[in-house]
Amino acid sequence: MRILSVNVCLPKVVAVNGARVETGIFKKPVTGPVKVRALNLEGDLQADLSVHGGPDKAVYVYSWKNVEYWRAALQRDDLDPGTFGENLTVDELTEAEISIGDELEIGTARFLVTQPRLPCFKLGIALGQPNFPKLFHHSGRNGFYLRVLQEGTLAAGDTVRKIEPPNGARMTIAEFARIVTSKSFTAEELDRVLNLPALPRSWKIHLTEKLQARGK
Known about the structure:
Elements (H helix, E strand, L loop, with lengths): L2 E6 L3 E5 L2 E5 L4 E3 L3 E3 L22 E5 H11 L13 E3 L8 E2 L2 E4 L2 E8 L5 H6 L4 H8 L4 E7 L1 E3 L5 E4 L7 E2 H8 L6 H8 L6 H14 L2
Parallel strand pairs: 6-7
Antiparallel strand pairs: 1-4, 1-7, 2-3, 5-12, 6-11, 8-14, 9-10, 9-13, 10-11
């Protein structure tokens, strides 16, 4: 497994339906080594920190297999690395191949897989299709976020080494996304999710409140 492209972008303001929207979704490939910092890659920032960024969403990864799927499904050949707002475009690592709790070594940096991406309206802006976030969401081709465990440098062409921890509960990104977006997840499924050591606390609070609300 390897990195095909490293993509970054600083936030900028765009006009959407007469409104001004600040976004950092328009990622573009860069060449050469890129520094990995605790909250992002060098040259990359998130615009709305209330829903984007932070330690558990420091780096976003998307598989080129997914890009090829969307190229065919949307009949668009202009979907390139960075189009989906990802920092790292990788050749493998689909949602069924990677789990929350897996660790990745890339270049001299080390990461922890924390959660899938649930898209906001800005993905529709990037694709020029306002309805695309819904298509993306229901496709199960979410990609995933990383927490930085060790700062370092990485570059396109670097090998991605996946490490499955010997202990601790794990769950694939695909299964997690299916459970948390379901209107009928079971108590047993929720228990499995809540016992994922690598899952961010914000997710555990949200899902517990969701189950409590459903029981009222």
